[in-house]
Design a protein that fits this description.
single chain, 434 Repressor (Amino-terminal Domain), Rossmann fold, 12 helices
Length: 340
């Protein structure tokens, strides 16, 4: 049976009110002796007491629950962000309630209702899903505190944490250009806003550098399988690029596998640059040069922003986006083209 405050009070020899004040961190005009505080905490630990967060919320207090609506929990980059969210929520005395929506607005709204019934204190939206404007309006109507993280390219109707795509794409392409590459292809997933933007930034860069005749933008879902299939087609063509900018590491890893299957040596015959710096990027063969988005730090920042809004009662209209700067991580998947 669940341990109650009354059970702890009886064993510690104090009132239920005193136990509640100690375990909930509430102060009042009447001080509590440190010896009493330590005794109550020891009894609570001995009885494995767990607070009833739902009951606390129903009484008008904080539930200490944060809902996370994740576009895709199988994304290795999003898993980094979730780890950062969890680290911050736990360190500040909250718990994370995770929902996987698979880019479905219907599922997202279902989780929004579940979070509402569970009296979560705020919601983090991780990633995007198609046709989300009406769904976001509904979520923001139901929940006062909402913060987004990753997969955004401009300010929205609620604050968010993301990285500067302009800087990231330029770092990748400058690296390839400085190695001597001009025949650079781009492979991206345009079904998400940052994937679409990275294609546009690539095309703009190629025109600015006078490489317009070599513009080659290919599209694929950002999965290992789909990008590998596209890569097999790309590396079988007569006019192959000497370098490929992949808009995600998942796409880059699929291209690495495709090159292996086609007998195309990386980086001797083709250089590949990814985007994200997921955990496995350093362990591919060869290790992947990539643009690092600080996933864990982004999750930590988004969670901290949400909890500050909750605890300080800050309206979302008063908060500006946190835009982080990506960095280039050079490994062994890039080298000068063979002709140089």
């Amino acid at each position: 049976m669940r341990t109650t405050l009354k059970d702890i009070a009886e064993l510690a020899g104090v009132s239920t009110t005193t136990v509640s004040r100690i375990l909930n961190g509430r102060e009042s005009g009447l001080p509590i002796r440190e010896a009493t505080r330590q005794k109550v905490l020891a009894v609570a630990a001995e009885l494995h007491y767990k607070p009833n967060l739902m009951a606390r919320a129903l009484r008008g207090g904080s539930s200490s629950l944060v809902g996370v609506i994740a576009q895709n929990i199988t994304s290795l980059f999003h898993s980094q962000v979730i780890r950062g969210i969890n680290q911050t929520t736990v360190s500040r005395g909250y718990r994370m309630f995770l929902g996987h929506v698979q880019r479905s607005t219907g599922i997202a709204l279902d989780y929004g209702s579940i979070f509402e019934q569970s009296h979560v204190d705020g919601i983090l939206i991780l990633g995007e899903w198609e046709g989300d404007d009406e769904a976001l309006d509904t979520l923001m109507y139901r929940h006062q505190h909402v913060v987004g993280v990753t997969d955004r390219v401009s300010p929205r109707r609620f604050p968010g944490v993301h990285t500067n795509n302009h800087i990231g794409v330029r770092l990748a392409l400058d690296h390839l250009r400085e190695l001597g590459h001009s025949r650079i292809a781009c492979v991206s997933d345009p079904s998400i806003q940052d994937g679409k933007m990275r294609i546009e930034l690539y095309q703009e860069y190629m025109r600015q550098q006078g490489f317009e005749e070599h513009i080659q933008a290919r599209v694929t879902p950002r999965t290992f399988e789909a990008s590998c299939q596209l890569g097999r087609q790309l590396f079988a063509e007569a006019e192959q690029p000497t370098a490929v900018f992949a808009a995600t590491d998942a796409i880059a890893i699929g291209l690495l596998q495709a090159a292996f299957q086609r007998g195309v040596a990386v980086p001797r015959q083709v250089s590949i640059v990814g985007y994200d710096d997921i955990d496995v990027a350093a362990f591919t063969i060869p290790p992947l040069t990539t643009i690092r988005q600080p996933g864990i730090e982004m999750g930590q920042a988004a969670a901290a922003l949400l909890l500050d809004m909750i605890e300080q009662e800050i309206d979302r209209d008063e908060i500006e986006d946190i835009v982080m700067t990506p960095t280039l991580v050079v490994r062994q998947s890039t080298a000068p083209p063979r002709s140089t």
